[in-house]
Design goal:
The complex is a heterodimer of chains A (325) and B (271). Chain A is 37% helix and 30% strand. Chain A has 325 residues and is of the alpha/beta class. Chain A has 2 domains: 2-236, Rossmann fold, CATH 3.40.50.300; 240-309, Alpha-Beta Plaits (2-Layer Sandwich). The longest helix of chain A has 16 residues, at 179-194. Chain A is globular, with a radius of gyration of 25 Å. Chain B contains 12 helices and no strands. In chain B, helix 4 runs antiparallel to helix 11 and helix 11 packs antiparallel against helix 12 (234-265). The chains are: A alpha/beta (325), B mainly alpha (271). The interface between A and B is large, with 39 and 32 residues.
Chain lengths: 325, 271
């Protein structure tokens, strides 16, 4: 398990003011983050640019040193034995960098494998397995410069797995990819967590991606975790009202009047829909039970009745709105 | 040690494949030093050497070809590292440096591998060319072959350490273009590649002392032209060993300090 406790990072930078003058500037990139990641779990870091996502990943992966706070990976503090920690983690970034374009896919994997001191036989078998896993068998001996974006990203995933890490940090893994390829990559990521028991920390600007993949989400703003939980609990804690949707097979003025009276009694607001027979009730509590009673008593032609869970995107928008206020 | 050598081999192989993607790249690396050598030779040829011979006894109309040959021969080793170290700094930009630092690989092994690759890529063809020129045009008889071999070994060792030092420097500086300018042309001028250091004013001699190439060229010329014995050039050898030690210690220090510094500043890469 990875456990970060009260993690802080402050950068001391110098800002140019004219040709010779420089002023010192202090940037608090991360201001006391606590997070946990277990093997087989996918957690998400969400936040706008400058929220501290990348700095957090770099601290967790030993690339930068925290100003204060502690990080334990499987019980070992990362500064105690960084070489051991480096064997347990790896990082995958979106985009087309971090691979050598003039080398073939196989050569890239071989090079990175050598950096981890993997014995030759083990490395060869692992490269074969990874190439199959990411579906690059036919292109493994072709220079990367001839790969498509999706193929490069798949190679990145294979590269990130070359040391068989227990934990993977993925920074925008589907950045700039077409929808079908992004979907394919998401399937790989899910597979890695479920089948290979990798603990995955994911950052993404695509909220639906985080919602689809992550078991737990941290929302960062200006270096702080402002909210955390599952997509469901985040929405529940963000929105004070619930949406209950009633779909009827038909609608007529009498039914409409009954519905209006019901809404008034329950202090619910009915949102307008494109189809008159679909009604969205916004109220403090779920209305399913009272609507079931109404349907029975008034013999309404029910088609569907359900509670609409707010999308994570709506949650983020709402949180951003509150933060900006 | 086995793991160290694996990283050296992997890095050298990567650099080799990354740079030599086309056979013509190899031939193109010969053009510049050959042209520079030819230009220097034909610049000096029309002038009388009497005045110079007073200060550099072995430099005359007949020995000028071999004199320049030694200068350029040694310089190609050192200069190729300035260029390759400059190219190595691109690892920062492409984000691959970050992945090297994410791994537990020995950092010295990485830059040693890079330096060896540069040596093999940039130098071998010029060495062949120079050997051909030497066989065809040399007028200076070889007097002390065993010491010459030792001097050549020293040259290779020093140039590799120079390459490692530059790689370490270029990895951690954001102003690699400036370093490149400072190291490229001045090295050729002040190390005595074509103009004898003995002719320089004191301040220029002082600058020349900062380049390891200066000592290598002097060692080679003294062995080739004056047939010096090992005892006679021992002080030069010791100086070279001392400089090698300084370069190695500086490399280790820069690598350790640089990584530590970048871990604090977050400057390692730009992803």
């Amino acid at each position: 398990m990875i456990e970060a406790i009260n993690l802080k990072k402050t950068y001391h930078t110098k800002v140019k003011k004219g040709l010779f003058k420089r002023e010192k500037d202090i940037v608090e990139a991360v201001k006391g983050i606590n997070l946990r990641l277990e093997q087989g779990q996918i957690i998400g870091l969400l936040g706008i640019n400058g929220a501290g996502k990348t700095t957090t990943i770099k601290m967790l992966s030993t690339l930068i040193k925290s100003t204060s706070g502690e990080i334990f990976i499987d019980g070992v503090e990362i500064n105690e034995n960084p070489l051991k920690i480096k064997q347990k983690v790896n990082m995958i970034a979106g985009g087309e960098r971090m691979i050598y374009w003039r080398l073939t896919g196989r050569e890239n994997l071989w090079y990175y494998g050598q950096l981890y001191g993997i014995p030759d036989k083990v490395l060869k078998a692992r490269i074969d397995r990874l190439i199959t896993l990411v579906g690059l068998n036919e292109k493994q001996d072709v220079p990367v410069e001839r790969y498509s974006k999706g193929m490069k990203q798949r190679l990145q995933i294979a590269r990130g797995l070359i040391n068989n890490p227990d934990y993977l940090f993925m920074d925008e893994p589907t950045l700039g990819l077409d929808a079908p390829i992004a979907k394919e990559i998401r399937a790989y990521i899910k597979k890695l967590a479920v089948e290979e028991q990798k603990g995955i920390l994911l950052t993404s600007h695509y909220i639906h991606e985080v919602e689809e993949l992550c078991d737990y989400i941290y929302i960062l703003d200006h270096g702080e975790v402002i909210l955390e939980g599952t997509a469901k609990t985040l929405s529940e804690s963000t929105f004070e009202t619930k949406i209950t949707v009633l779909e009827l097979a038909e609608i007529n003025p009498a039914i409409e009047a009954t519905i209006q009276k019901f809404a008034l009694d329950e202090k619910a607001v009915i949102h307008e829909q494109t189809h008159a027979h679909i009604m969205r009730f916004e109220s403090k509590n779920e209305l399913t039970e009272s609507l079931v009673k109404l349907i029975h008593s008034e013999k309404l032609p029910l088609s569907k009745l359900y509670v609409e869970a707010p999308k994570l995107e709506d949650t983020i928008i709402e949180i951003s709105r509150r933060v900006s206020i | 040690m086995k793991r160290f050598m694996k990283v050296v081999r992997a890095e050298a192989r990567k650099q080799f494949k990354n740079k030599i993607h086309n056979i013509w790249v190899v031939f193109s690396m010969l053009i510049w030093p050959v042209l520079a050598f030819a230009a220097a030779y034909f610049q000096f040829k029309p002038f009388a050497f009497e005045a110079i011979t007073e200060k550099v006894s072995y430099l005359n109309d007949e020995s000028i070809m071999t004199y320049l040959m030694i200068g350029y021969f040694a310089m190609v080793f050192f200069r190729s590292f300035v260029q390759s170290a400059w190219e190595f700094s691109s690892e920062r930009i492409y984000g691959t440096l970050e992945l090297i630092y994410l791994s537990p690989a020995n950092r010295i092994a990485v830059i040693l591998g890079n330096a060896i690759a540069s040596l093999l890529i940039n130098v071998w063809m010029f060495v062949l060319f120079m050997t051909g020129i030497y066989v065809l045009f040399n007028h200076v008889p070889l007097m002390n072959v065993p010491v010459l071999v030792l001097a050549l070994i020293m040259m290779v060792l020093m140039s590799i350490l120079w390459g490692m030092l530059l790689n370490a420097l270029f990895l951690f500086t954001r102003d690699s273009g400036m370093l490149f300018t400072v190291l490229e042309e001045p090295m050729e001028l002040f190390a005595g590649v074509k103009i004898p250091v003995e002719l320089f004013p004191l301040w220029a001699k002082g600058i020349g002392l900062a380049f390891p190439l200066t000592y290598v060229i002097r060692l080679l010329r003294e062995v080739v032209f004056l047939g010096r014995s090992l005892l006679e050039v021992s002080s030069l050898f010791y100086t070279c060993i001392f400089i090698c030690t300084i370069m190695f210690v500086a490399t280790v220090f820069i690598l350790k300090w640089g990584e530590k510094h970048n871990a604090i500043t977050g400057d390692m890469a730009l992803f």
